[in-house]
Amino acid sequence: MQKIKAINQVLMMTFAFFQILSCTTEESKMSFSVVVENQSSEPLNISLFYDDFGVKTLFVEQLLNPLETYNCSYSKEIFTGFHGCLNSNSRGIDSISIVFSNSKGYICVDNSADQALCLLKGPSLFGGAEAFQSLGDNNYKITITQDDFENAFELP
Predict the structure, then answer these.
(1) CA 82 to chain centre
(2) Helix (H) / strand (E) containing 17
(3) Domains and CATH numbers, the chain
């Protein structure tokens, strides 16, 4: 009987040891918000796309009149700009188009060397917070200005 008790204790200790080793800690997720504000005098369409196994797929399209905003919120371990707006582990937003009523605008594509038509020439809209105005508490904003309207590109 003593032997059986000892074997049970050893088995329980071994089981507990392996349970502790097999535990994984999930990174804590935080809530983020990305806002696009139209401060120009013209309405614009903002479209967010993702790559669905080689097919460019529309995620959302929204008309923003002057002074209106588009907001996307998501939970992730780190801020990923617009990339997190799809809130999927396997895919994320990888291109954005902003088109004004005169058909001029901007196209930004993640991981593309050619950013000639992008709103920003420097920091990425799909990565860290550098491209965004911080509003505090993990809230970030991009403002589309009258200058952005006046300097918009002829789009293909």
Answers:
(1) 3
(2) helix 2-22
(3) 30-154 (2.60.40)
